[in-house]
Design brief:
Chain lengths: 410, 272
């Protein structure tokens, strides 16, 4: 997954988790280990700020003492919760985003951010560099953080044997580095109470590197696949027989296209990667979040089976799942239907996305005999094939042949 | 995983036009693979062979049938790494060297105690199932025309003659990394599976594929017949077919299902 277009972050070791992707930087306290695993999948998959925030909050916010979420895009958006302070360097000086206030979190969007730094615990030198991955950190800085004092302890990265990618920018930031935040309280007991007070050093020296910093990490470049070839002007990226212009003696050139005009493979080329591929086949419906940190509902089947909705569930007489990635394999639930009233792939229930986030959503997949839904306090309704309906706890689905599914809280 | 008795047959042919067969296939129950290489000159044939080798290794080592998707996806990733590495070596001498390959994979897996088909696809090779006399394309091509069809811009008929019909959007060997699509089918949903390269599906229409799969009982003969039909239709590309039958599969449509449907139609005024 590592691409040279990512931006490196300098880290010092500590007890917090840093989850670093091309589009977001996320910091979570050490006790949030469970969330980190799920969120890494999202971040590594190229999820943007909103998607990661969705995933972060899926497990509830009450238990979440503090976090820092920075989205790197056209502008830089930062959310900070708990007693953590993030310093962002812009051309106009530093901006401090602190989660100390009254609100649920501090939320700032800044443009022209050249770098940033956050110190969670005092201690070690920021001698590690990571572009993408998970790390235990005590402080973190990115971009041109030289002027930002949180990254005061930046030292040149260890030599290139380090498994991470080597940033050039770290070198640039070294001379200006000024250790200030050397709060000598080793091993703070609660990571959620990081070293608070430090002041940005006045003279920020924005480096042009910052301009190239954010958006470049976007995985889709729209460029055709080139099979790793140097991007020379090769006319047939994967053609069976590259069309080579051979100059003849009389100065004319002959195109050596050897295969027949209709030859299949001779023409097969790899186009640009498909970015906006809608995976599961329900048009117009939002996709389930790829990772749900805990089930949104529990299904109690009349057969006695109990199924948690933490992924897409497909129910039918002999259900099939179509077009999924290896990481989001749906669960297939087979129900007996001696009268064949239930279709082989009858309906699906998935964790809702967008407005339905946090609840289960049912869709009839074009079953032959249909599905009846009874929501508490509402008259029974027939599900329209392909139209998703959000399920209230207590809702009962009737598939036919005496098979019902009751939705309960997880 | 309960052992399942599979009958299978495979056939491949270089075709009438090409000099090298860049298709590779693997028949190692319960794993079946067809890979269609691209890029001549010790390119496509090596790339497709690498995919087959990696899956052969998976069979040799054994895999946990409960984690099929993971194993298949890891195996594809290993093949991808080898193809990219091989390509880098080749490009040191031939700067314009390229290679890539498609892959379609069928493996038996254990899904919550039941044996199922796990199918994977990258590129424009295809997986069909033949069930109850009907042919159904399970895999969805990773191609520009398929996306246009999905978007409703062109019809399937227009796709067959579209100028960009040979442009695929995903393949092994591309530096962007690979994301196979997976499919999970109960065994009962596919009496017969066909894995084939576009040398078959691009040369003969689906109706002819269906007719052959229907008429030819033995899977070995069926695979042969498919390849022969592709050659007879012009054989402009390497053609490879792998046909797999699940033995002892009884179709479970009850005797009165048609009547039930008719009576429901009566009651509801329309077929629901």
């Amino acid at each position: 997954m590592s691409e040279s277009t990512g931006h490196p972050r300098q880290l010092s070791t500590g007890s917090w988790y840093a989850v670093l992707g091309h589009r977001v930087t996320l910091l979570l306290p050490g006790e949030e280990r469970a969330r980190v695993a799920g969120l890494w999948e999202l971040v590594d998959g190229g999820a943007d700020f909103d998607e990661v925030l969705d995933g972060l909050l899926a497990g509830g916010i009450r238990a979440l003492g503090g976090f820092v979420l920075v989205g790197h895009g056209e502008g830089t958006r930062a959310l900070v919760r708990g007693g953590v302070t993030l310093t962002l360097a812009t051309a106009d000086g530093d901006a401090v985003v602190s989660g100390d206030g009254e609100g649920m979190w501090a939320d700032r969007t800044l443009h022209g951010v050249t770098g940033g730094a956050v110190v969670l615990e005092g201690g070690g030198p920021a001698d590690q560099v990571l572009v993408s991955g998970i790390a235990r950190v005590g402080s973190l800085s990115f971009g041109d953080s030289a002027g930002v004092d949180g990254a005061g302890a930046v030292t040149p990265p260890a030599d290139s044997h380090a498994p991470q990618e080597e940033p050039d920018r770290a070198e640039e930031s070294r001379p200006v580095a000024e250790p200030v935040a050397q709060a000598p309280e080793p091993e703070q007991a609660e990571p959620s109470e990081p070293v608070a007070p430090y002041e940005p050093v006045a003279d920020v020296v924005p480096i042009e590197a910052a301009t190239s910093e954010p958006t470049t990490g976007a995985p889709e470049t729209g460029e055709p696949l080139t099979f790793g070839a140097p991007t020379d002007e090769d006319p047939t990226p994967t053609g069976e027989q590259p069309a080579i212009a051979e100059p003849l003696a009389d100065g004319h050139a002959v195109l050596d296209v050897h295969d027949g005009r209709d030859d299949h493979d001779g023409h097969t080329t790899v186009g640009p990667p498909a970015d906006s591929f809608v995976r599961p086949g329900i048009p117009g419906q939002e996709l389930a979040p790829p990772v749900v940190s805990r089930p949104v509902a529990k299904l109690v089947l009349s057969t006695g089976e109990v199924v948690e909705v933490d992924r897409t569930i497909v129910v039918g007489r002999a259900p099939e799942a179509r077009r999924f990635a290896s990481s989001d394999q749906p669960r297939l639930v087979t129900v007996a239907s001696p009268q064949h009233e239930i279709s082989s792939t009858h309906l699906e229930i998935r964790p809702g996305a967008g407005a339905d986030h946090g609840s289960a959503v049912v869709t009839d997949l074009g079953s032959t005999n249909g599905t009846v839904l009874v929501q508490p306090g509402l008259p029974p309704e027939d599900l329209q094939a392909g139209i998703a309906v959000s399920l209230i706890p207590g809702a009962i689905l009737d598939l036919g042949d005496g098979v019902t599914i009751q939705t309960t809280n997880p | 995983m309960k052992p399942v008795d599979l009958h299978h047959g495979a056939a491949t042919d270089v075709g009438h036009v090409r000099t090298v067969n860049e298709d590779s296939f693997l028949v190692a129950p319960p794993v079946f693979v067809v890979a269609d290489g691209m890029g001549g000159h010790a390119g496509g044939d090596v790339a497709s062979r690498i995919v087959v080798e990696e899956f052969a290794r998976l069979v040799e080592r054994g895999y946990d049938p409960r984690r099929g998707a993971e194993h298949v996806s890891d195996t594809i990733a290993r093949a991808q790494a080898r193809i990219v590495e091989y390509g880098e070596g080749q490009r040191a001498e031939h700067p314009r060297w390229h290679a890539g390959t498609t892959a379609v994979v069928a493996v038996l897996v254990d899904d919550a105690g039941t044996t199922k088909w796990l199918l994977a696809n990258l590129g424009d090779s295809r997986i069909y199932r033949f069930d109850d006399g009907r042919l159904d394309q399970v895999s969805v091509d990773h191609s520009v025309v398929q996306e246009l069809v999905d978007a409703g811009s062109i019809t399937a008929e227009e796709a067959a003659v579209h100028p960009e019909r040979h442009v695929i959007t995903r393949a092994l060997g591309s530096p962007e990394g690979v994301r196979p699509d997976f499919f999970l089918l109960p065994l009962s949903a596919a009496e017969r599976l066909l894995l084939c390269s576009d040398g078959i599906s691009g040369m003969i229409p689906d109706s002819e594929i269906a007719a052959i799969l229907d008429a030819v009982h033995d899977p070995r003969d069926a695979a042969d017949a498919l390849v022969r039909a592709a050659l007879d239709a012009g054989g402009r590309d390497n053609a490879t077919a792998v046909v797999i039958d699940v033995v002892g599969l009884v179709h479970d449509d009850s005797y009165d299902s048609e009547r039930q449907l008719a009576s429901l139609e009566d009651k509801l005024g329309a077929r629901p």
